[in-house]
Design a protein that fits this description.
By secondary structure, the protein is mainly beta. It has 3 helices and 25 strands. A hairpin with a 4-residue loop joins strand 4 and strand 5.
Amino acid sequence: MKVSTYFPSPLYALLFLTTFYAITSTAIINSQTDATTDGLAPIDFITDTQKVDEDENSSKPEFVNKVPSLSITRGKDAVMRCTVKNLGNNVISWHHLESNSDLTINKQVLKSDPRIRIKQEQDSWLLIINNVSLEDKGFYVCRINWQPNSQLAYLNVVVPPKFDENSFPNNHEIVIQEYINLTLRCQATGDPQPTIEWRHEDGGPIVLSTPTDLTTSLASSSPRRIEGEELHFRPITRWSMGSYLCIASNGVPPSISRRLMITVHFPPVIRIAQQSLVVMRGQNAVLQCLVESCPLAEQQWIHPNGEVINEEWKKYSLDTEETYHFKVVHQLTIKNAEIEDGGEFICVVNNSIGEAKSSIKLQE
């Protein structure tokens, strides 16, 4: 009798294996359930491959903290810290993105720059840049084995303000005629770019044009601070005379300031409060002549008889008081006034720009 051999088709084989796997899995799950029900610990199946993976993960290098970004003043030292645990035999490196240059590998410095050093402190790798310059500004990358996994930090290099001396007049002093337009300039460099602020040195108002009403307080109608590189006077007047401060700042200490002096020349102007003065016999008579001028004017009192009164005249005393930059009060005191002392006294003033005179009539 002939015996035939039968080989199942692949489809039947696959169906058989699937059924066997399902039955086996169900049996294992039921056995674990029964063991738990009976108070026995469930059985964990751990393969050798899983164990190797866990060992590799426990020794894999990783960053501990982010590398902090820094803001350093030019000329000082920058220290950037990158901390990695489980580095082992792996490679750690520093890279500067802006210059696209590798700086260090482990303890070796790659860039030919004596300012750059690398220092290890346990798990930390310190990139040290001495005397930083603006070219050092940018992003720095700390990475392991040149892999995408890396730490990125920014080094900002700042520069304190510095004046451009060419923007100032010689000797920082300006002498100008009244009613002429004037522009002061003050420029400074730094990083970030400094802001410029103008102030009056005495803290007073900045009068940029001719006051329309001198009875109104200049403090209430004029600013005390003005921002910008240029300060415009349209036009300059005697009320703008004085010292000004140009202050440059950019948040990087120290702020700096420069003093500019403006002197406004104009001819003398006389202001008389009382054109006529009545005095009792035997009393002192006080005559006042308020003069505005720059340069300060020379002053004289002319007696009704036409002579110039001087200190040698015992019956008269002469006093001068400066009340403002360009204001001077000239006072003439007549002691024990008599009838013969009456008449018209003339206040005469002059400077290099012009002259002026005004009279006061003394009556008994």
